[in-house]
Amino acid sequence: MAENQESTASPSSEKSSASTAPGAKQPSADAPRPERPAGERSGGNARATRPGGDRRPRHGGGGKRFFRRRKVDFFSVNKIDDINYKNVDNLKQFLGDRGKILPRRHTGLSSHHQRQLRQAIKRARNIALLPFVGEIKKGK
Amino acid sequence: MRIYELVFIVKPDLPEEETQAAIEQVKTALTDGGAAIDKVDAWGKRRLAYHVNGFADGHYVFIQYSAEDKSSLPREIERRLRVADTVIKFMTIRIDEDLQRLEKLKKKREKRAAKAPQRGPRPGAARAPSAPVPAQPSAAPSQAAVS
Description:
The complex is a heterodimer of chains A (about 140) and B (about 150). Chain A has about 140 residues and is an all-alpha fold. In chain A, α1 runs antiparallel to α3. The radius of gyration of chain A is 21 Å and the shape is globular. A four-stranded antiparallel beta sheet of chain B has the order 2-3-1-4. Chain B is globular and about 55 Å long. Classes of the chains: A mainly alpha (about 140), B alpha+beta (about 150). Chains A and B meet through α7 of A and β2, β3, β4 and α3 of B.
């Protein structure tokens, strides 16, 4: 997330400096921007110390130090072609505690499968097989 | 031809006959509308993930049917389910395109599976004749001869 911000921020700052006169005007144009990297850095530091920080694998400075299981696409590994809304037990593992659909960075699915999963979960929710909000029982 | 999946939930507090009658009603409505019923599956009483019209459970009924292209039947069926007070929730999904996609995937997979054994023995077969010719000499000369 932090990296994204950085990558979007830096080209825009370059652009702004290119469009306006380079040199004296640059600091004033970029005045709000240097704050962001600073904020990022402090965020990165906080992440390294924070216990939840190791959930984010690729991004962040602290991420590299931890070893974590490589994420695999559940549906390609198990050769499931059809991500179906009726297969509730299969879908449940891609929901958070509050019934939210987990993001791709968490599920490790290919974008194609994540899209199919999203569709299936929404269908299952519509027909009351899965909750829209609230706790879901994963043990079932 | 389009294939649809229809899932609807019948009120849980009805007597068994009325539940069956509700299912029959939908079925006859489908056949009268010119659809062919491919599959009927009563999932039975299930707990709902959230309350619907004050009910925590419901009888799930699953019907797969096929109707003509651009038929207004699915719309009509949904309209009827909406006014039927025995049905608390329903959903229709068109699945023929998904089925086609799955079929394609399956074929692709079979093709690959059929190809894979061919690919397996080929290097082995190429090596097998080359191996007996030099017999005792080490593998290095045979490889050099091949290359």
